[in-house]
Amino acid sequence: MLRKTGFLLFAILLAMLAACGGTEEEFGSEGDAEDFTNYSDAVNYTITGIEPGAGITVTTEKAIEEYDNLAGWELEQGSTGAMVTELGKAIDNEDPIIVTGWNPHWKFAKFDNLKYLDDPKGIYGGEEVIKTIVRKGLKQEKPNAYKLLDQFQWEVEDMESIMYESAENDVAIEDAAIQWVQNNPDKVEAWTEGVEDVDGVTVELVSTPWDSERASANVVAEVMRQKGFDVTITEVDVAVTFEAIATGEGDASLAPWMPITHQSFYEAYEDGFEDLGENLTGAKIGLVVPDYMDIDSIEDLKPKQ
């Protein structure tokens, strides 16, 4: 009797599952269910960012405002080093993480599994360039400095190689830049073509305090010193960078990212400096995730409930 009752209950259970469409085949395996990860919840509706006031920080704050599905999200601001540390920990454990990203940056040399999320609203823009700006009057007062600065141009991979060498081998970025100059005489020759040697002419380069700009500033400073210039590098916040060149307190900066990242600062001071054009092309900013995350667009993220 008990056996018959058991069979009857089992048959009823199967009938109920069939009626509800609840077979294992229809629902999928447990592993299939895990494929539908709510990444927004997994990262606690938080984007891991860098320093307050940085161009990528300002743009990400705008993205949170412009994308309806980012309503309720937070941008965790800290140091660039802390962001990369958190990224490394997440990758080691294959955990979800969303970070503010940009090229050139050495994390793309360290981690070969990163991807940008599509930005349908174009908040982060397309390809960025890094420009050289100089104070008005520099060409007349220091023509050889002006000529070298005007001829300076390099590639994303050049900048990233210096940053990676510094970060991975605990080498001061100044030393990594000097070594790069020694290893790339052809590029240095192109930058110094027609530039005469000088005797102690002073030049002040104004830079932002990030390794990408430290790399370019120290490379150019080393090349200028080889031509006899007395070069100093002053690191300041982004807004002060543009102000310093526009007011003549500094001679030049290799740090402006355009047309999006530093647009507001550029437009605020553009009447006070001369734009020598691009010193690097192919730069990019946006939100970055490891490629094991099955997500492709900012719009795939879910708003905070």
UniProtKB/TrEMBL annotation:
Alphabetic keyword roster: Cell membrane, Membrane, Signal, Transport
Subcellular location: Cell membrane
GO biological process, one term: choline transport
Coiled-coil features, chain-numbered ranges: none
InterPro entries linked to this entry: ABC_Gly_betaine_transp_sub-bd
Gene Ontology MF terms in the entry: amine transmembrane transporter activity; carnitine transmembrane transporter activity
Signal peptide interval: 1-21
Record domain ABC-type glycine betaine transport system substrate-binding: where: 34-183, 202-303
Entry keyword Cytoplasm: no
Pfam families per the UniProt record, alphabetical: OpuAC
Protein name per Swiss-Prot or TrEMBL: Glycine/betaine ABC transporter substrate-binding protein
